């Protein structure tokens, strides 16, 4: 079982260190990022806790064959177009795609278990309505006291195994897996309400932001303008502006520029200066005014492009 506590100054290094998750983290908040990741990961379950001090958008795919649950311990994020409260538990299933807008200071606690094993246990314990919830809902609304009890059952053992890795053995793994499975059963059997996807303005805004992200990803190295996106989505600039402000807290031009700056940073980190110089990478991502590019880069990441550590030849 992997047991580790790590700190990072790069969002993608943080994202790539969470076992089993295929994901990209794009930094949106300005300044040098500091984050912490604590994780225990085995063949049949995983627990991780992450803290990020800058606004970040996380997107990707959950682990295959797993049922995943996550709860916010701090500032509330937006997940799958829904605002997550302190009493909410977010659910992802079996490689499901996700988008998470994490505010500055986000503190997330996440668990996952083997989906097949849990389904067998759930069939004996949950009602038909609860089993339906297991298969369909994206969020559970759970009493705060229950969430506290679950954390009090899991977190002490989680902390102990991270601090005393020599205590990790098959017995400890089995004990922790059973605690997690029990916690999932409690969540589904005691959920007071199913949080349904909002069909109002916020859900529409979240959908438009998600579609913009998909269009940008599909465009490759061809930057899309705000007007390009408006044309693709058949919406006005005002609608796009209001949607981004509601979901991401920033104007679309700033959000899209930050995504391109993150793409430049990933390219810098994974290539050597001998094969690709900074200006080539910047211009490939649509930054043709290099002094403006360098200024925006420093504002976002707290360092100049030339200070970003490049890959060895």
TrEMBL record:
Chief subcellular location: cytoplasm
Gene3D superfamilies in UniProt: Homeodomain-like (1.10.10.60)
One term under GO cellular component: cytoplasm
Domain HTH araC/xylS-type: 210-311
Protein location: Cytoplasm
SMART domains: HTH_ARAC (SM00342)
Source domain of life: Bacteria
Transmembrane stretches, start-end: none
Any one GO biological process: positive regulation of metabolic process
Protein name: AraC family transcriptional regulator
Natural source organism: Pseudomonas mandelii PD30
């Amino acid at each position: 079982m992997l047991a580790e506590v790590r700190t990072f100054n790069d969002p993608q290094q943080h994202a790539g260190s969470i076992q089993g998750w295929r994901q990209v983290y794009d930094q949106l908040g300005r300044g040098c990022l500091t984050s912490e990741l604590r994780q225990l990961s085995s063949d049949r379950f995983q627990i991780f806790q992450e803290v990020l001090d800058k606004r970040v958008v996380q997107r990707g795919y959950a682990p295959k064959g797993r049922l995943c649950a996550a709860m916010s311990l701090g500032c509330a994020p937006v997940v799958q177009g829904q605002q997550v409260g302190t009493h909410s538990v977010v659910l992802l299933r079996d490689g499901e795609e996700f988008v998470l807008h994490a505010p500055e200071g986000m503190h997330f606690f996440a668990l996952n278990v083997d989906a097949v094993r849990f389904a067998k246990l759930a069939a004996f314990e949950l009602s038909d309505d609860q089993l339906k919830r297991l298969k369909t809902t994206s969020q559970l609304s759970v009493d705060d006291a229950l969430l506290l009890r679950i954390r009090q059952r899991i977190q002490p053992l989680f902390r102990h195994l991270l601090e005393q890795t020599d205590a990790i053995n098959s017995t400890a793994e089995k004990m922790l897996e059973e605690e997690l499975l029990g916690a999932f059963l409690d969540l589904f059997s005691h959920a007071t309400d199913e949080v349904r996807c909002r069909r109002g303005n916020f859900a529409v805004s979240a959908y438009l932001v998600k579609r913009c992200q998909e269009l940008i990803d599909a465009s490759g190295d061809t930057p899309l303008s705000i007007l390009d996106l408006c044309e693709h989505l058949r919406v006005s600039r005002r609608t796009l502006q209001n949607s981004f402000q509601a979901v991401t807290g920033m104007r679309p031009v700033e959000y899209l520029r930050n995504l391109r700056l993150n793409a430049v940073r990933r390219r810098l980190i994974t290539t050597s200066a001998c094969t690709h110089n900074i200006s080539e990478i910047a211009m490939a991502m649509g930054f043709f005014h290099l002094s403006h590019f360098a200024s925006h880069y420093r504002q976002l990441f707290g360092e100049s492009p030339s200070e970003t550590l490049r890959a060895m030849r």
